[in-house]
Design brief:
The complex is a heterodimer.
Chain A lengths: L7 H29 L4 H6 L9 E4 L3 E2 L5 E3 L2 E7 L7 E6 L13 E5 L2 E5 L4 E6 L10 E8 L6 H8 L7 H32 L5 H12 L7 H10 L6 H25 L3 H9 L4 H12 L1 H17 L2 H6 L9 H11 L4 H21 L1 H12 L2
Antiparallel strand pairs in A: 1-9, 2-9, 3-4, 4-8, 5-9, 6-7, 7-8
Helix pairs in contact in A: 3-13, 4-7, 4-10, 5-7, 7-10, 8-9, 10-13, 10-14, 12-13
Chain B lengths: L2 H31 L7 H39 L1 E4 L3 E4 L3 H7 L2 H32 L5 H9 L6 H11 L12 H8 L14 H27 L3 H9 L4 H12 L1 H16 L3 H6 L9 H11 L3 H30 L1
Antiparallel strand pairs in B: 1-2
Helix pairs in contact in B: 1-2, 2-14, 3-14, 4-5, 4-8, 4-11, 5-8, 6-8, 8-11, 9-10, 13-14
Classes of the chains: A alpha+beta, B mainly alpha.
């Protein structure tokens, strides 16, 4: 449509804007979670993440006064600052939820029994009372305040290094690594030999085997769970890392063989025939010629398999135990969603820890991923 | 033993074992069994060449057999049996299937799965095609594509967390922290909705998560297909005075129809197996159950292996047409 005279500029603009709109639509969900992971739990639950970039005037959740009591004349006084963020400015405040904006900054509120409270514009408060307040519940302050943007790395510190409430994401991260790396490396070689045989060796039943592999590509994992769990229990593997490595290897093989075979078939026939004529054995041809030439396909498959094993939940739920030393990231995320569904700072941060590695792999090796996708499905 | 250390050993044993197996078996074939020398040299070479493919194939075939082929048969067998006390399996005919179809949760899963099967592939392919077409003609197209492709790398569980924040609902007097409710109120909604508890709509909200992930996949494949369309056909259409929409629908789409079908079926398979998203977001409550999660419920929460296997067989049956079609195409191609 670029060639149609007179229509170009308006249409091109429309294209630019609609693509921009789609990209934003696709990015915003992830971006929202990323921003949330740098906010405190309180911030997340009181305002949308999109407000965190600018100074916001909001009614904060009630803050209970706390601090050391000291004597000042014949009064008992507690003073301090309401906010952790020093740049916060109060525009109105109150002491009950019915009248949260009853007082202006600097005004003195009479709390009865001779108690009085004052809050200044920058959040300094002073509570004075004729009798000691020790042992009584101190009043709460409802403040309407302008808070400048504030981000923190504390969530990541908590999630990775403080195993609170038995949910250690740092440990789960290592467990996931332990699952994903062997489960990615082991199938490659097994598949590569098989793919070579299927691509370049003549034997009875070759076409049938290729068809079988294509068929197995789409067999739902769901069918494999119970029989394999029974099998693993029967031969003494039980639930554990060995079981899940084997399972991932088995489940990844059809795609590996299919991708690699499709790639190897396309290698130039001359090279292989020449090598055969020169007296190379099939084993040598495979190791010295086929394997190095197939690097792009090997890379494609490894990325697929790595992403799949890293992101998998079902296989891990079935073949791994639920103990702290075997729980993977996806599993802990599901647990967190169940047990601490409201703690968005923990959830968002844990989710980002689990997403970070696949995203790195994705952006670093996107070329191979795309190539693999094209080889795997376009025919 | 430290699992990380165990993993390292496994890599060494796994990879080393493979290399060792292939090397040793080849050596044995060439040096001991049928050496290509002596009086029967020619004969031996032929025989070795008949055996060698099977040496190369053996480990893969073993793994495929044990981990994929055998379970299909075993699951079929289990679906006709019921576990009795003492771990004895008793043949019960179709009783498991009968029990399954008498459960309303099963029909709810079927209905939802059918909805998923229509909505997700359709929307993913549509968005994929849209983005592929639009980005083809702008200079920052590859950046845009890469960003839309990105959710592909995110786990279904991670995506569920991301979208759960979007669907979050707060009481009306508080600030909304979920984007959907914020938009809804901004556009004049009166009451924040707890989106994931409204039957039928909530399934749609779950589907959006999968569309968000799969659209990138559709886009990558369709974009490559669009590029392979011969320029001449488009130029001819322009000369004949076709407008951009006619070019798209009458020239381009028909030429990539085969690819669209492939994308559609691939996403269909993903949809049939969808499990993580439902488990993480609603766990099948509020009428969002799907087959794969129903099966997981039966297997691991109700511990009913018979009905669980029967529902797994239903998933297999639904996949079957695509499996046959794929195999048919692969065979056609090999001729």
């Amino acid at each position: 449509m670029d060639n149609i005279a007179g229509k170009r500029s308006s249409l091109t603009w429309a294209v630019h804007i609609s693509v921009l709109f789609l990209v934003l639509l696709w990015l915003l969900p992830t971006f929202g979670l990323l921003v949330s992971s740098f906010r405190t739990g309180d911030q997340i639950s009181t305002s949308g993440w999109w407000r965190s970039m600018t100074t916001q005037e909001t009614q904060l959740s009630p803050i209970r006064i706390a601090g050391e009591e000291r004597a000042e004349g014949d009064l008992f006084v507690i003073d301090g600052n309401l906010f952790a963020n020093a740049a916060t400015t109060v525009s109105a405040w109150g002491t009950s939820s019915r009248e949260p904006e009853a007082y202006a900054p600097g005004e003195v509120a009479d709390l009865g029994d001779g108690q009085s409270l004052t809050v200044t514009g920058d959040g300094d408060f002073k509570l004075s009372s004729p009798a000691t307040t020790e042992g009584t519940r101190l009043p709460r302050v409802f403040a309407t305040a302008a808070t400048p943007p504030e981000f923190t790395l504390k969530n990541y510190d908590t999630v990775l290094f403080n195993a609170s409430a038995g949910q250690s994401i740092g440990k789960a991260f290592l467990n996931t690594m332990t699952v994903a790396i062997p489960a990615t490396l082991i199938p490659i070689l097994v598949a590569a030999f098989a793919a070579y045989a299927l691509a370049w060796m003549e034997f009875m039943g070759r076409a049938l085997l290729v068809a079988t592999v294509v068929g197995l590509l789409v067999v739902p994992l769901q069918l494999a769970l119970i029989p394999l769990l029974q099998l693993h229990n029967a031969i003494g593997i039980g639930k554990g890392y060995l079981g899940i490595w084997l399972a991932h290897t088995g489940f990844g093989l059809p795609l590996a063989i299919y991708l690699l075979r499709n790639y190897m078939v396309g290698l130039p026939r001359d090279i292989i025939e020449n090598a055969r004529v020169d007296g190379a054995t099939e084993f040598q041809i495979f190791i010295k010629i086929i394997l190095p030439l197939s690097f792009p396909a090997l890379a494609s498959f490894s990325i697929f398999q790595f992403l799949w094993t890293w992101n998998d939940l079902l296989v891990a739920l079935v073949f791994l135990g639920t103990g702290d030393d075997q729980l993977v990231l996806t599993g802990s995320l599901v647990n967190l969603l169940g047990s601490r569904g409201g703690d968005w700072e923990i959830l968002a941060t844990s989710a980002f820890v689990s997403i970070a590695v696949p995203l790195l792999v994705f952006f670093a090796m996107q070329k191979y991923l795309v190539r693999g996708l094209l080889a795997g499905s376009v025919k | 033993m430290n699992p990380a250390f165990q993993a390292l050993i496994t890599i060494v044993i796994g990879v080393g074992g493979c290399v060792g197996y292939f090397y040793a078996s080849n050596l044995f074939l060439d040096k001991v069994l049928y050496p290509p020398s002596g009086p029967n040299a020619g004969h031996n070479i032929n025989r070795a060449n008949i055996i060698r493919p099977w040496l190369f194939l053996f480990p893969a075939m073993l793994a495929l057999g044990v981990y994929l082929a055998y379970p299909v048969v075993a699951t079929a067998w289990l679906s006709f049996h019921q576990q009795r006390a003492g771990g004895v399996e008793e043949f019960v005919g179709l009783a498991n299937y009968q029990q399954m179809i008498s459960e309303s949760k099963f029909w709810e899963s079927m209905r939802n799965n059918m909805l998923w099967l229509i909505v997700v592939p359709a929307l993913s392919t549509m968005f994929g095609l849209l983005v592929a077409t639009l980005t083809d003609r702008i200079w920052w197209g590859s950046i845009a594509k890469s960003l839309i492709f990105m959710p592909m790398a995110i786990s279904f569980v991670g995506a569920s967390v991301i979208w759960k924040l979007i669907y979050d609902a707060r009481p009306i007097e508080q600030d909304q922290i979920g984007m959907l409710n914020a938009l809804y109120l901004w556009f004049g909604g009166t009451e924040p909705q707890t989106w994931l508890t409204i039957p039928l709509w909530n399934s749609l909200f779950l589907m959006i998560v999968l569309v968000w992930i799969q659209a990138g996949f559709a886009m990558v494949i369709l974009s490559a297909a669009l590029r392979s369309i011969p320029e001449e056909t488009i130029e001819a259409a322009i000369i004949d005075g076709a407008n951009p929409f006619q070019i798209f629908f009458k020239i381009k789409v028909p030429q990539i129809m085969g690819t669209i079908v492939v994308v559609w079926t691939t996403i269909t398979i993903v949809v049939l197996k969808v499990f993580d998203i439902v488990l993480a977001m609603t766990n099948g409550q509020w009428e969002t159950q799907v087959l794969a999660n129903y099966m997981f419920d039966k297997l691991f929460r109700a511990n009913d292996w018979g009905v669980g296997s029967a529902s797994a067989m239903v998933i297999m049956l639904l996949v079957m047409p695509i499996l046959v079609w794929n195999v048919y195409n692969a065979r056609k191609e090999m001729r």
